[in-house]
Amino acid sequence: MRFLAAKRGQIRVIEAFFASVLLLSALAMIPSGSQVGRSHDETLHSLAQRTLVTLDTDGSLSSLIENGSWDTLRECVQSLVSPAIWFNLTVFDENMNPVNEVLISSGSPVNTDIAAAEYVCASSGSNYRIYVVRLQLSNVS
Amino acid sequence: MTQKRKKSDSGQALIITSLIITMLLLSTAYYVFEINNNVTDDSASIDYEFSATKLSTLDTVVSALANASNGGGTSVLTANLDRLVSILQSHSYDGEIRLLFIPLVSASYQNGIETSWGSNGSGISSAYVNFILNESAPSVNYCSQYATNITTALIVQASSTGNDSEKTVNATWTVYSEQGFALAKDIRVLYQNETDGPWIPVDLLSNNLIDYGNGTYSLCFNAYALSTIEVSAQVHDSRGIFVMANATC
Q1: Residues B146, B36: one domain?
Q2: Cβ-nearest to A53 among B19, B23, B52
Q3: What is the nearest CA distance from B239 to chain A, expressed in angstroms?
Q4: Do B55 and B137 sit in the same domain of this protein?
Q5: Which of B144, B133, B142, B137 is nearest to B38 (CA)?
Q6: Domain end among B150, B176, B204
Q7: Do B22 and A24 touch (CB under 8 A)?
Q8: pLDDT, tens digit, for every residue of A46-70?
Q9: CA–CA separation, B204 and A140 (whole Å)
Q10: Confidence label for A122 from pLDDT (cuts 50, 70 and 90)
């Protein structure tokens, strides 16, 4: 009888331990809202980074900028990002003055969550110039 | 009664202790998971910074070689890289960047640039720079060392047939880049039919220039010469890098 009473206490402790493990692990499994938002922003941010590097892989980005081929540049970005993603590309010179006189964008943003990445683009022509290219991305839906 | 109460109190204390231990364990596991996540994010960002910086430095070296081979000085490479480094450091991506560059200095390279346009049938325009890239993000530090070599080379072969003064010259030349065969953007062929005489341009269209599509070109033209003829091929590759080579036949 005494032995049973002593055992009952231990069982309670074990019960409580398992209950708390279950409860806390369930809580830990639920991703918080900020985490979801952050990972979403990071995906867009890395997509913007990948797009910028892909655009300049063959060194053609600087020639497009120097020739003022803004429509071609828009088409290039359009082919690299999903139609469900809004984009806006801005080209700056070394002093951060905007270079593109026309908007290189897929329209107006419908979402306020905008991720951006920047890329320092050096020209490969004999007349050396440096541009800073900023790509902003946002989900349309 | 007091003993009974003591017994039940010790049970409650155990429960609370076990709860605290569990919470501590779980929060530690969660903290480790979060740190791991941050390291992965920083690694991705470092990868981007490395690719982006490597592309910028490559374009800068190409630009400097195009400039130097078209009459600019060899100091243009250092000047352009200085400009790039200053922009990259003031415009660091997600972390902090430190980029050091060491242009190759050797018997043939001056300030990282070699322009060797000989009369032995071969010509080389080349640039070689070593880079040390240090990047630091909040949870990752990265150091990389890489070399950038940009080369355009030209090999010319010429032979002549015919009698003493009227000769038919066959010239063949091949353009190379550091990656293999390269295409020429524009070509000029000239010949000299007497020592220290004027260079006479050859009309490529009327002499049926043959483009083999793999960086090799050939041409056949008639020339008046009493002794040997010196043929000069001058080429700009698709990147605008100039190279020339002379061959005697």
Answers
A1: yes
A2: B52
A3: 7
A4: yes
A5: B137
A6: B150
A7: yes
A8: 889 889 989 988 878 988 999 999 9
A9: 56
A10: very high
> For the segment B139-149, what is each residue's pLDDT rounded down to a tens digit?
678 888 999 99
- Name which of A33-47, A54-68, B51-65 the model is least confident about: A33-47
In tens, the pLDDT along B107-125 reads 889 999 999 997 889 999 9
β-bridge pairing A115-122 and A130-139:
antiparallel
Q: How far is A35 from chain B (nearest CA, A)?
A: 10
**Full domain range(s) for residue B67:** 32-150
Q: Do B63 and A13 touch (CB under 8 A)?
A: no
Give SS3 for B222.
Answer: strand
One domain for residues B227 and B240: yes
Dump strand ranges (E) for chain A: 85-92, 104-105, 115-122, 130-139
Distance from A70 to chain B by nearest Cα, in Å? 21
CB contact under 8 A, B19 and A20: yes
Contact B59 A119 (CB under 8 A): no
Cβ(B37)–Cβ(A40) under 8 Å? no
Q: How many residues does chain B have?
A: 249
Co-location of B36 and B127 in the same domain: yes
Of B58, B62, B87, the CB nearest to A130: B87
pTM for the model stands at: 0.76
Q: Which residue on chain A is closest to B30 by alpha carbon?
A: A28
B227 and B181 co-located in one domain:
yes
